[in-house]
Amino acid sequence: MITTTHPTALSATPTTTDTIPAQHGYSKVNGINMYYEIYGEGQPLVLVHGGGSTIQSNFETIIPMLAQSRKIIAVELESHGRTGDRPKELTFEQDADDVAALLKNLKIEKADFLGFSNGGTTTMQIAIRHPEIVNKIILGSALCKRDGVPPPFWGFMEHATLDNMPQELKTAYLKVNPDPAGLKRMHDKDASRMVHFKDIPDEQIKSITAPTLIIIGDKDLITPEHAVYMQRLIKNSELAIIPCGHGEYLGIKISPTSDGKEAAYVVPMMEKFLNKTN
């Protein structure tokens, strides 16, 4: 079941920018109502956000760029933003199944995918579990092994509290869903998922046949060694290391000193990859 608001009903008022029209709605997906937004026309490109995030907090900068030549389908995953919640733990596998079911509801048989951070790990699971719906994938700061981040990360996650969640992410959540209890539930579920994260087996990673672009920042949470390891496991893959921090290459401003200008040259690079014929 899909409930969609079209640009005419919105008086062409976009939901993330003041320059492009959007559709937005909810779809019944595996027992939850999943929120999505659609921009532009052309080959479908699905955007999958990171942990603790919303569509806007991760992709507001790049959506207008990508929508000039693509049909952008941006989703909010279980417990995040405007999407519903299940009374159980989050898993990357369930998120992958939810995205696949949403595309079926939207009658999209095949698409390209761009996943960032946790969304990159979800995108890997989409390529592993649902290869028939995948053209190409872009993995932004994706994690597939526990040793892909510095060891202190795991201790931090074990003691994570809502108080030390980045204020920008808390503000973004409450802007679209003014529910403090929902915010805490999302945080706690995301933290628990990371504490219990298990390595994706090499054989599953090697099974990814979709052309793949792996992107990280040289000052990323994900280590360069991990990105190289992934690139060697995924047969048809390329690797780009951008001089920036976690997500700044997507225009995400993660610190007072970041300006997100890296997106101006990273987006054309992603488009070149997506448009390349193999």
TrEMBL record:
Residues 1-22 are annotated as: Disordered. One of its GO terms (molecular function) is serine hydrolase activity. Transmembrane segments: none annotated. It comes from the Bacteria. Residues 44-183 form the AB hydrolase-1 domain. It holds the Pfam family Abhydrolase_1. This is Pimeloyl-ACP methyl ester carboxylesterase. It comes from Chitinophaga dinghuensis. The lineage of its organism: Bacteria, Pseudomonadati, Bacteroidota, Chitinophagia, Chitinophagales.
